[in-house]
Q: What sequence folds into this?
């Protein structure tokens, strides 16, 4: 009897395979430019670069990580001087998170490299194919919810 199960055709496997290769490329860029950060830290820093002053729960929601992991990541980023926590203006229980000058400089250094990787990943793929890919991935994410 023939086995019809092929894990290499599973959507999750295909997505994770791509994620692994992309993360490796990005981590190499970090190291080549003298930044000892993880991909998870980079994900949090991206959110804060785009939306300064978010509170921890908002960061967790945008990065699809739980609050415990976000706390750990923020502690490391704070210790390394990439972020600062400031008291929320209207909610004394909350802290707003901002990039420091050091964190912003890192982005200024790395964004051109990240953009170059992104362009290489899109090589040979039309704008229409990219729109279709984005649409398909969004449907997969909704189905996974």
A:
């Amino acid at each position: 009897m023939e086995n019809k199960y092929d894990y290499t055709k599973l959507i999750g496997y295909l997505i994770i395979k791509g994620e692994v290769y992309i993360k490796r490329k990005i981590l190499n860029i970090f190291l080549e430019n003298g930044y000892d950060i993880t991909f998870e830290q980079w994900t949090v820093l991206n959110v804060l670069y785009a939306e300064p002053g978010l509170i921890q729960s908002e960061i967790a929601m945008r990065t699809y990580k739980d609050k415990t992991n976000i706390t750990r990541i923020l502690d490391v980023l704070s210790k390394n001087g990439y972020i600062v926590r400031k008291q929320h203006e209207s909610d004394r229980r909350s802290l707003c998170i901002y990039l420091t000058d050091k964190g912003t400089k890192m982005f200024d250094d790395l964004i051109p490299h990240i953009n170059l990787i992104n362009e290489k990943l899109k090589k040979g793929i039309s704008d229409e194919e990219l729109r279709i890919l984005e649409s398909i991935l969004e449907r997969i994410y909704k189905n996974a919810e």
